[in-house]
Amino acid sequence: GENVEQHPSTLSVQEGDSAVIKCTYSDSASNYFPWYKQELGKRPQLIIDIRSNVGEKKDQRIAVTLNKTAKHFSLHITETQPEDSAVYFCAAPAAGTASKLTFGTGTRLQVTL
Amino acid sequence: NAGVMQNPRHLVRRRGQEARLRCSPMKGHSHVYWYRQLPEEGLKFMVYLQKENIIDESGMPKERFSAEFPKEGPSILRIQQVVRGDSAAYFCASSPGQGKTEAFFGQGTRLTVV
What we know:
The complex is a heterodimer of chains A (113) and B (114).
Chain A: E1 4-7, E2 10-14, E3 19-25, E4 32-38, E5 45-51, E6 56-59, E7 62-67, E8 72-77, E9 86-93, E10 101-103, E11 107-112
Chain B: E1 5-7, E2 10-13, E3 19-24, E4 31-37, E5 43-50, E6 53-56, E7 65-68, E8 75-79, E9 88-95, E10 104-105, E11 109-113
Parallel strand pairs in B: 2-11
Antiparallel strand pairs in B: 1-3, 3-8, 4-5, 4-9, 5-6, 7-8, 9-10, 9-11
């Protein structure tokens, strides 16, 4: 099955700086890579996703890059704000499935003033 | 569109009791997924259902856990004879299927076994 590894487990940045979270996956057939943001006590919320036919996708301050050859994808947050503080999870679908997602172990991002 | 609805939000059960967790998918979504999240951990896949069918239950414990998604009504995750180790947040997600892969989560049910 799919194996997803995520680094770092914790990340502290100053407000206005950039944050980068990296994930690797094992199944070369995976073709969809979502990122979720989870605030304390709340549900995971889909913030951005990328499909295997593109290498980069951007949505305002958030971008995701994908390297299929190396089987890794990254989340980039620029101009971080305190409200970006949360746990971020990457995910990849198991081969042959639509949304049976295997999640990374999460990155706790703390944006300090 | 009310989104994915789960109830109850919080559930307390004594050891040995049964827990029933409900999930109503987003309007137009026919695929439902259940995930379990232990404190300070990530989400672990449990089961994938479509209407009246269990598609993949590879993440379900072999005993005490069952799930259904009837033709009418919400999907139900049922845990019999609960133990303290079942305490966790249980999230339901839905997707439209038909090649569309985006999955949206409900608010979760936080189960506490005392």
